[in-house]
Structures are given as structure tokens and as C-alpha cells.
Amino acid sequence: MGATQPFDHPHIFIDMGAADEKICPYCSTLYRYNNLLQHDQTNPIGCAYHSDSSNVS
Description:
Zinc finger CHCC-type domain-containing protein, Znf_CHCC, little secondary structure
């Protein structure tokens, strides 16, 4: 997210498996599982991405 095509970050699924942390293979961002967050919460607040399903073909 952030940059526009063709310079944007690839949208990929990172399988956490049983791990609590994973590093993105493209940008090296560390993703850490937080079991205190609800399914619709983010930290920092407001960082969830919601796709517009009307644009999906």
C-alpha cells in the first residue's frame, strides 16, 4: 500500500503458521501477531485495508 502501480508493493499473503513473527520478503517489514487485537482492530489504529469488492472481476 502507499505507492501507485507499477511502483507499489506486491500484495501477498504471508503465512504466519505457528510463528508469532514473520518478515516480509519484499520490504523486510516485521509482522508480529498480537492476540489482544480483535479481528477488525489494528495497531496503530486505522491501518486496516478494506478492498472494494465491486471492482473485483
